[in-house]
Amino acid sequence: EGTSRGVWTTVSSFGGKFDDGEGNMTLNTPENVAAVEFLRTMVQSGYVPEIAFAGGFQEENAFKDASAGAFPTGLFGYRYVNPLTAPSGTEYAKGNEEDMLDAIAAGDVILSPFPAAEGQLPGCDIAVAGFGIPTGAKNPDAAYDYINWLMTPEQNADWVLRPGGGFPALTTTRSSEQFQTPFYQQAGEVIAASECHPWAGSLERTAEAQKLIMGAVYKLIKEDPSADIGATLQAAQDEYNAGN
Prior knowledge:
The protein has a domain at 3-72 and 114-126 and 197-241: 3-Layer(aba) Sandwich (D-Maltodextrin-Binding Protein, domain 2). It is 44% helix and 3% strand. The chain contains ten helices and four strands, in the order αααββαβααααβαα. It is globular, with a radius of gyration of 20 Å. It starts with a helix and ends with a helix. 25% of the residues are buried.
């Protein structure tokens, strides 16, 4: 998950990307090198706690206990950050998704765009939940009716909230009562201030790409911070593209 979360958010906030739009990996670019240099500086300067490298979303724990002041996450991350001690020291201990929502409503936690390089917009990932109708389906008209029903303002709001706690793509849905809370108001401002794209772009072997990218970045910022950034990124890029 590190590739699609922290690494992609940083790379895209520096104007970088992982692909060339034609299925080839492109890691060794000036923008990507600058992004990795930033991550290396953050890690080597002690701004990133060790638990951030543990995997399994354990980086959230450093925010739960206020030992970290910020962390990159998906919009749905609020559901799992509980119980919570806010940076102010205030404790929220319902033990469910309301802890983060309560902290945001109280002003003890805020949502913010990721810091971006000069001349760039903050970046982030996009994940989309959708439907497909199989070829040869016996009753495609019923599927059309169901999808159209889900797209009505009343039902679409419920659909957006339930599967992953995402943000509505339909502007008509955004005006629904459910999205007038402090959390969703701030989320809307962050999204409007950011330029978000799917992290994989045109890369098709996403699991392989994630492993190669994260492995290269981890080596550069943690295992061997003296390693040449461009050469290490190029090696990962070449290994992936050899399979195209």
